[in-house]
C-alpha cells in the first residue's frame, strides 16, 4: 500500500485540528502505527472537548450536591471547578461548569446541601441554586477564611476563621463570635467540630492550644492539648498530637461536663 507523504499527513492533521473527535480505539503503550479503517457512519457520538478535563493543582475539595468542587488553582485563584453529576461524573470537570467568583481568590468553600459559601481571606459570597449555574450574593467585607482548614459547618451554621471567628447563618447573616477571646486568638487556626463535646474547636496550628466554644452556652474555654487535629468515630472523639500520636478524648473529664 502506498504510504502518504509528509505533506499529505500535515495537511490531514491541519484539516482535523478543530474536530470533531471520536473515541475510536485504545493503543498499547509503545505502538507507533495505527491504521484507521472504521467507516464514518460507525464513529458514534463526538467527544465533548471540555468533558473529562480536571484542574491540575488545587487547594481544596468538597462535595456540593451531586457534584465535586475543587478550588485553589494558582492559574485561576477565583475559580471553582465543578464536576459533572456523580459518582461517574466526578472525574470530569468541563469548562462549561467552571464558575468564576467575584472574589480575589477562593481560600475555602463550604457547602450546605445545594448551597455554598466561598471565602477569600477578607470577603465571602453565597452561591445559591444549582451548582452547575450558581447565583452569587456578596456577604460583605471582613468575613473570610485564611485556608481550607479554617472553615466548616456544624448544625447548619458555617464557621470561618481569618483572625476573627465568624458564624454565618443559612440566611447569610454573619456574627463575630470570637470577641471575648480576641486577644488570644491564634495566628494560624484550624476549625474542627465535636458532637461529643457539643463544641467548635479552634486549634492553634503553631502551638497546639485549643480554643473551645461550647455551643449550648456560647462560652469559650482554653485547653492546652498540644493538638494538630481531631476527628470523631463511633461516637468518640480522638486527638492527633503535634508529634503524630493518637489519643482518645475522655469526654466525662472535659469541661464543661
Note the main attributes of this structure.
257 residues; mainly beta; 4-stranded antiparallel β-sheet
In short, what is this structure?
This protein has one helix at residues 6-15, and strands at 60-64, 67-71, 79-82, 98-100, 108-112, 115-119, 123-128, 135-141, 151-154, 157-161, 165-168, 174-176, 189-194, 199-204, 209-214, 219-224, 227-233, 236-241, 246-248.
Report on this structure.
It is a single chain. This protein has one helix at 6-15; strands at 60-64, 67-71, 79-82, 98-100, 108-112, 115-119, 123-128, 135-141, 151-154, 157-161, 165-168, 174-176, 189-194, 199-204, 209-214, 219-224, 227-233, 236-241, 246-248. The protein is mainly beta and 257 residues long. The chain has a four-stranded antiparallel sheet, with no helix packed on it. The protein is elongated and about 85 Å long. The termini are far apart. The model has no long low-confidence stretch (mean pLDDT 90).
According to DSSP, the number of beta strands is 19
How many helices does DSSP assign? Answer: 1
The secondary structure category is mainly beta
Compute the separation of the termini in Å: 86 Å
Largest sheet: spatial strand order: 1-2-3-4
Radius of gyration: 25 Å
The major sheet is characterized as: 4 strands, antiparallel
Give the percentage of residues in beta strands.
35-45%
What is the approximate shape?
elongated
Give the proportion of residues in helices.
under 10%
Amino acid at each position: 500500500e502506498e504510504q502518504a507523504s509528509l505533506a499529505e499527513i500535515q495537511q490531514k492533521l491541519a484539516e482535523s485540528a478543530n474536530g470533531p473527535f471520536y473515541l475510536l480505539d485504545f493503543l498499547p503503550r509503545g505502538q507507533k502505527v495505527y491504521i484507521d479503517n472504521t467507516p464514518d457512519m460507525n464513529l458514534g457520538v463526538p467527544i465533548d472537548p471540555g468533558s473529562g478535563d480536571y484542574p491540575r493543582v488545587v487547594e481544596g475539595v468538597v462535595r456540593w450536591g451531586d457534584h465535586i468542587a475543587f478550588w485553589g488553582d494558582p492559574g485561576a485563584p477565583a475559580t471553582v471547578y465543578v464536576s459533572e453529576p456523580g459518582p461517574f461524573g466526578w472525574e470530569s470537570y468541563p469548562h462549561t461548569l467552571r464558575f468564576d467568583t467575584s472574589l480575589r481568590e477562593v481560600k475555602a468553600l463550604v457547602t450546605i446541601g445545594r448551597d455554598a459559601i466561598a471565602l477569600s481571606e477578607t470577603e465571602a459570597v453565597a452561591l445559591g441554586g444549582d451548582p452547575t449555574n450558581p447565583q452569587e450574593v456578596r456577604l460583605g467585607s471582613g468575613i473570610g477564611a485564611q485556608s481550607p482548614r479554617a472553615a466548616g459547618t456544624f448544625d447548619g451554621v458555617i464557621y470561618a476563621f481569618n483572625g476573627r471567628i465568624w458564624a454565618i447563618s443559612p440566611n447569610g447573616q454573619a456574627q463575630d463570635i470570637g470577641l471575648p477571646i480576641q486577644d488570644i486568638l491564634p495566628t494560624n487556626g484550624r476549625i474542627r467540630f465535636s458532637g461529643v463535646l457539643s463544641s467548635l474547636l479552634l486549634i492553634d496550628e503553631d502551638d497546639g492550644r485549643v480554643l473551645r466554644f461550647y455551643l449550648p452556652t456560647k462560652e469559650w474555654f482554653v485547653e492546652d492539648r498540644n493538638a494538630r487535629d481531631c476527628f470523631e468515630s463511633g461516637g468518640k472523639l480522638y486527638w492527633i498530637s503535634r508529634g503524630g500520636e493518637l489519643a482518645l478524648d475522655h469526654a466525662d473529664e472535659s469541661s464543661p461536663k
